[in-house]
């Protein structure tokens, strides 16, 4: 038989203990999952679209089952360097988005007012710009209008910023910034609009024909009598971004895209990738989904109620520790009982084995004695020619056996010839 080939899953699987660079280990990683009994097709697809935003430092092929709990994901988070967990849930009241900082919190709970999937957003665009190179680097996070009053706004801003690797302005490579994530806070409705875009940089002040040559596109010369006519065409912008002076920038370094050289002017164009989300902060908890409520948009409690809730939580925590301690003591007792039972079993087995050996020895001796008696009787018959008396070879219990009769000389009686 030939050697069995490795399957597709084995080839694509990356070992956990493989060597990784320090930058990858230090970068924020995330789990994006959905929970609840009322999950439908849309929330599953929205979860997959949000994973595209979080790439490349997220579990894109995470297989989650209904029997998995939040504790299961938290228990393996440290192995995969997970720092954030995004949870989409659905109840009878609506859809919610929970953002958790692992391993000690806090947890932000948002209500999803509206959303659009990536496939719906892309289908509305005239020009689509989706390719795999976009998702090899993390997006640029753009926050707008988060400088208002309230600690919750600062917390939201810091949470979303820390979900992605930091950018060093002095050493960043502009060619790696190909996506951006925009978060706009509406102070009137207290909602946050989340948008996801792809970034494209195109050179300006260049004729359309020259731009095609720069971008390695085959020009159409059917309407030109000479090649100079093609090059002499006026500059025609392909989009509003090229005509808008606010989108023009002077590049500090050369980009990987064609025609974008250092100290030259270029225009920045964006293409929406989706998904779209409009969310509102509802609750802030200390801890991962089970801590003290630090902020709530709709429910406000007095200081007495807060103290009462704090006492109940403290009593619950102490009861949990007490039960855990009792459980550990019971576990130790069971281990001791198990060890004692094991020792007793070993002693009993050893004693049983000794008894068996003794019985085998006694049985062997009795068999040997019976064989000796049979030999003596047969010898007597052969020498004397008569049957021996019954009491001749029998011995009482505890009496030592005399020397074998085979060693004694028996004289034959001479018969008178007269």
TrEMBL record:
Q: Where is the composition biased (Polar residues)?
A: 247-260
- What GO molecular functions are on record for this protein? rRNA binding
According to the UniProt record, where is the region Disordered? 238-260, 319-351, 391-418
Which GO BP terms apply?
ribosomal large subunit assembly; rRNA processing
Listed under GO cellular component are: preribosome, large subunit precursor
In terms of InterPro entries, this protein maps to: Brix, PPAN-like
Q: Specify the Brix domain's residue ranges.
A: 29-290
Tree of life domain: Eukaryota
Query: Which portions of the chain have biased composition (kind: Basic residues)?
Result: 403-412
Q: In what ranges is there compositional bias, type Basic and acidic residues?
A: 326-351, 391-402
Which ranges form a coiled coil? none
Which Pfam families does the annotation name? Brix
By its UniProt entry, which PANTHER family does this protein fall under?
PETER PAN-RELATED (PTHR12661), SUPPRESSOR OF SWI4 1 HOMOLOG (PTHR12661:SF5)
Task: Tell me what this protein is called.
Answer: Brix domain-containing protein
Question: What's the source species for this entry?
Answer: Melipona bicolor
